[in-house]
Amino acid sequence: MKINKKPSLLLILCKSNYDNLIETKPWNGLNEFFLTNIHIFKLPRDGSDFKKIFPAFLQTLNIIFKINNYDFVITTSTVGGLTIAFLQSILGKKFIKPKHLMIDVATIRFFNKSGKLLCKMVNFIFSSVEIILCYARNTVTFWKEKIKFNNDCIFIPLMVDTELYFSGKNDKDYIISVGRVGRDFDILINLAKEIKTKIIIIGSKKDYLLLKPEIDKVKNIEYLVEINKEKYIELVQGARFVVLPFKKINFDCGQTVLTQSMSMGKAVIVTRFVGTEDYVINNEDGIFVEAQDYSMLKEKTNYLLQNPSEIKRLGLNARKKAVKLFDQQVVIKKIADIMLNLQ
């Protein structure tokens, strides 16, 4: 792709106080196409607490005074995206000029059960956004059918660093599960009672405190809280396979751990729901189970434990898909193409 002059881009990322999920490295690929400036919010994970998200709101207002120095702005922060969209919709594009591309990471969680009046308000707030990018096709449907969003809304897969999250040897005798939002770890505790293979869970301290009374009753289950990235990669690489059970939820989540596990060449048993159905082909590069279906989860887990060749086949296919479709440079190129087509 050749252009005579690079347009300028302001990239607004949102980083929790205690995670590494948002990194600047993948986005450096945009430098090939744009003069890029990256701004990172520091925002507590509990985005429902107004007192905690207010600092991010103030940071956004501070950026507003400089925003017209850029041709484009990308927001991955719900607070930053909403604030910029609202001000641009109110004031007009004569006052806030950049084309705004928003990557939606949480809107559906807040507005999925909203009535018509609130949906109209949401539609107005985001009406200035040129394009919304979503990590699930179901979220595209939400914006188009429920919110009645008039501009483009496009599915892109969540990107993963396939060089960092590379295939390792699954030579340890344990199964691993990772995550926070929407996870059904109770079903794993029940599973651990009936299989001999150890189960390791990596999750939040909040979930651990809730589950601890039941975990203490089971010998072959271990719960780890907020470990560092290096240890996380080591544990996932060493596992026989990954199990990601989700509760019955109607918003997308879980793609980070799923794509990282696939990139590491792991066979994954995962709940089929709106957050995962765009990433896995059943029995080809992963195995789907239904939400809170213990019998099905137990059957598929035992199947893999008894068929190591299937673990290898699924893991190889998962790695190939991650490199081909989810690799960060592949996704960044798609985002750049979308933006440059707006010029």
Compile the SSE list and pairings.
Layout: E1 8-15, E2 35-42, H1 50-64, E3 72-75, H2 78-91, E4 99-104, H3 107-111, H4 116-125, E5 131-134, H5 137-146, E6 152-155, E7 174-178, H6 185-192, E8 198-203, H7 205-215, E9 221-225, H8 229-238, E10 241-244, H9 255-263, E11 268-271, E12 287-289, H10 294-306, H11 308-326, H12 328-340
Parallel strand pairs: 1-2, 1-3, 3-4, 4-5, 5-6, 7-8, 7-10, 8-9, 10-11, 11-12
How would you describe what is shown here?
α1 packs across α2, α9 (255-263) crosses α11 (308-326) and α11 packs parallel to α12. The longest helix is centred in the C-terminal third of the chain and has 19 residues, at 308-326. This protein is 40% helix and 18% strand. Mean pLDDT is 89; it is low at 17-21. The chain folds into 2 domains: 8-159 and 327-340, Rossmann fold (3-Layer(aba) Sandwich), CATH 3.40.50.2000; 174-325, Rossmann fold. The protein has a 6-stranded parallel β-sheet with strand order 2-1-3-4-5-6, covered by helices on one side. The protein starts with 7 loop residues before the first strand and ends with a helix. It has helices at residues 50-64, 78-91, 107-111, 116-125, 137-146, 185-192, 205-215, 229-238, 255-263, 294-306, 308-326, 328-340; strands spanning 8-15, 35-42, 72-75, 99-104, 131-134, 152-155, 174-178, 198-203, 221-225, 241-244, 268-271, 287-289. It is α/β, with parallel strands linked by helices and 343 residues long.
